[in-house]
Specification:
It contains 8 helices and 10 strands. It is α/β, with parallel strands linked by helices and 265 residues long.
């Protein structure tokens, strides 16, 4: 029986209530601190002030990152992995903290969005990527190489992931596509493991975790997004089997056997 825990509140406080070394995979899409009068975005084809919400306005982003990452390291199992999404605005801060905490940095994933939105300004390149740090406590961590290879049509998966941006399913401004989380959860965990998302947003991580038969803990500070996430996750149906799931994905290499033997922890 899967266990789904959805917690409403500040991740910096709620993470402290989670037991040491109890989480197998953590995916975090933290605030990038891009909201405020000094930050601009595009709305309806026009330049506008970026205001994603109070949750995206942080006085000291580096200190904030250090605090929540330290808690995540504490609750992560010795063979677990920590995945942190970001852009150039917070990626350097996260990288420095991972090294300060003496974590083993496994990879930096470059998520390339071939259909990213065009840029109105003509003084810089149009942003088309996001970055994902992958780290662990040591070189002994869980990584399902065979599933990664299968997802990549039988070839070794590289750290450049071309995944198109999708129309958001909810009103959350930074919603991630389910396909991105499917890769992360399938490669970084096995059925029955526990996945944590400290900045749950609209609940995409929880939807995918439940669908793939993983336990899930999600934390969200915004009341409206918490309700959206809970509704999405509650209505998600678990897949009967991994084999059937892959068949439904379609477009895979038919010469690869649909048999997997996940390595033991």
């Amino acid at each position: 029986m899967l266990k789904i825990d959805l917690l409403k509140g500040d991740a910096l406080h709620l993470l402290k209530d989670i037991k040491d070394k109890s989480i197998d995979v953590i995916f975090a899409d933290p605030p990038y601190n891009l909201s405020g009068k000094n930050y601009l975005t595009c709305k309806n084809g026009k330049v506008a002030v970026c205001d994603k919400g109070k949750w995206d306005q942080i006085e000291n982003i580096h200190e904030f990152n250090r605090d929540w990452i330290r808690e995540c390291v504490r609750i992560l199992k010795d063979d677990g992995t920590l995945w942190i999404s970001g852009t150039l605005h917070n990626h350097p801060s996260v990288g420095i903290i991972l090294k300060e905490l003496k974590l083993w940095v496994i990879n930096d994933i470059i998520w390339f969005k071939p259909n990213a939105a065009p840029l109105i300004q003509k003084n810089r390149f149009a942003p088309s990527t996001e970055l994902i740090w992958i780290a662990a406590k040591s070189k002994k961590y869980y990584f399902d190489y065979e599933i990664a290879k299968y997802l990549n049509n039988g070839k070794q998966m590289r750290n450049l992931w071309e995944i198109p941006a999708e129309r958001h399913k909810t009103s959350h401004p930074t919603e991630k596509p389910e396909r991105l989380l499917e890769r992360i959860i399938l490669i970084g965990s096995k059925e029955g493991d526990t996945v944590l998302d400290p900045f749950m947003g609209s609940g995409t991580t929880g939807v995918v975790a439940k669908r793939l038969k993983r336990n899930f803990i999600g934390i969200e500070i915004d009341s409206d997004y918490f309700k959206i996430a809970k509704k999405r996750i509650d209505s998600t149906v678990m897949r009967d089997s991994l084999v059937e799931y892959f068949k439904q994905l379609g477009g895979r290499n038919k010469n690869i056997q649909l048999e997997f033997s996940n390595p033991k922890r």
